[in-house]
Amino acid sequence: MPLSMSTPGLGPSLPPTTELLASLANIAQRTDSAMTNAGLLSVLLQGSKLPEIYVQPEQDRPTKSHDVQSELEVELPVVDLSAFNSADGPLRDAALAKIVRACETWGFVQVINHGVDIELIEKCEAEVHRLFQLPVCIKENALRVPGALYGYGANFWLNLPAMNWAESFHINKHNCKEYAAKLWPSDYERFSSSVEKYITQVEDLGHRVRRVLTEGLGLEAGHFDNYFTEEETVSTLRMNFYPLCPEPSKALGLKAHRDPHFLTLLHQDSTGGLQIWNESRDEWFNVKPRTDSFIVNVGDVLQAASNGRYRSVLHRAVVNSYKTRLSMACFFNTSATVVAPSELITPENPQRYRPFSWKEYIRTAYTFTTGKVSQLDELYAIQSSSAGATEQ
Ligand SMILES: O=C(O)CCC(=O)C(=O)O
Ligand SMILES: [Fe+2]
């Protein structure tokens, strides 16, 4: 694969120095992490043609680009979270019914008046842009190798037929400083202090939304509190940068997947690119971006904890040739072993999934690439003959 002389989509121009090209050649030759590292090359390659490793199989290509809006676009249900602090009972009831319905059908909802400080979001986005604009030879210091959960590299699913047209960075609240120091050894505080605060505030939003959704299941709002103690709450932040793509109709920024965690809280810029699969309509829908909102989606763990009532839905990111995109996905989760509460299990609606811990679930989550089949249904569903039994 030829290396070219400039870096489209990486923000301010980054002339390839001899050092950079040597670093790329070095990355390309490593076999231990070939899939991840191949992803790094993507964004440094120039040209009007999509490099072969990014060409998606025909059946996975976006049938709808994000450039076309109008009838392809869906305004996801928007829920004003301030209703849950209101003394106005009917207003609160309506907001509860709306968020529950959205999570039962789309598996996605947008929340506004979410309580996360707007200035902090902007500051964090600016820091994340600064991270992705670093030369690859610096970002390489924090490389995420296959099997690792944190670091830089967009292609963390194994066995992909084609690479994601994206750069990603995974960290959590506890290792943020350590990873930032790999990039800015003497100046990591600027990044880590914004990002740590951001994760803390988004985690707080995660707790509030999960209490509302728990209430929506007919349970006490605090029913899952013991899964979400300080110790058991584990959130990961995935920052996604989607560079300009020379042939967006053949590529994907992020392949179709379900989020494995409990809830995802996604903030995105105004570019747009998220698509959600609607099973009953058998179609992909574009989500109209709203920068004042967080997109909240149900992950596999919540699908299991709600005994299948809330749905973890297939989604993906498409890319375009005219505007880069940044999104920040906070995966809000528990390390506890999750099982649907007995209140949700009846003879008509028996227990759907066997209990599992996150440690067990994550082991296969990034090798499970069969697209439309869900890992949860494939590996954890209790067959109807044994439904109702509580396997351990
Ligand atoms: O960038 C997006 O809109 C999607 C991000 C996403 O689905 C993820 O990071 O899991
Ligand atoms: Fe996702």
From TrEMBL:
Domain of life: Eukaryota
Gene3D superfamilies linked: B-lactam Antibiotic, Isopenicillin N Synthase, Chain (2.60.120.330)
Cross-referenced InterPro entries: DIOX_N, IPNS-like_FE2OG_OXY, IPNS-like_sf, Iron_ascorbate_oxido_reductase, Oxoglu/Fe-dep_dioxygenase_dom
One MF annotation (Gene Ontology) recorded for this entry: oxidoreductase activity
UniProt key word Oxidoreductase: yes
Residue ranges occupied by any Fe2OG dioxygenase domain in the UniProt entry: 233-335
PROSITE patterns: FE2OG_OXY
Alphabetically ordered keywords of this record: Iron, Metal-binding, Oxidoreductase
Similarity field: Belongs to the iron/ascorbate-dependent oxidoreductase family.
Name of the protein in its database record: Fe2OG dioxygenase domain-containing protein
Species whose genome carries this gene: Marchantia polymorpha subsp. ruderalis
